[in-house]
Amino acid sequence: MIKRSIKDFETIVEDILSNDKFQELNNELHHGISRFSHSRRVASLTYRFAKLFHMKNIEAMTRAALLHDFYLDNEFINNENSAKKLSAHPILAYENASSYYELGDLEENIIKSHMFPLKGDIPVYKESYIVSTIDKLAGAYEMSCFKFSLALNILLIFIFNIITIQR
Ligand SMILES: [Fe+2]
Ligand SMILES: [Fe+2]
Fold it and tell me: Which phi and psi angles does 19 have, rounded to 5°?
């Protein structure tokens, strides 16, 4: 029996993480953190999930997960509103990703359908459903951390103000 050797996460994604344009995602705010960190989190969780369940497309899934939000806010034409951005960004991410990397049908569908069922294409592979679900879970976690730290900061400012007023 031939045993498939699985590359580690860093080896699969290192060329994307070091891409100059992809590095610009460090300056883009997304769910209260950078789009770079969000994308890396989605890719890392996808990799761990795929490895745990011995999925055969682990590399394609992981790379597509990393590329799913590969866009910059200033790439939208005429400052489109948030609803337009919601539906347009998977296509923009795919265009950016495919200008640097060779992507197959699986990667294309993962990227273009990651906003399902809100916007974009319909997932046609189980891998697309998995990445789309992981993206939503990661987004919910990041937003809750952001809101919690925001609430905590407001509370601390409030306490600080009371202490200083009472002096
Ligand atoms: Fe997205
Ligand atoms: Fe995302």
Answer: -65, 130
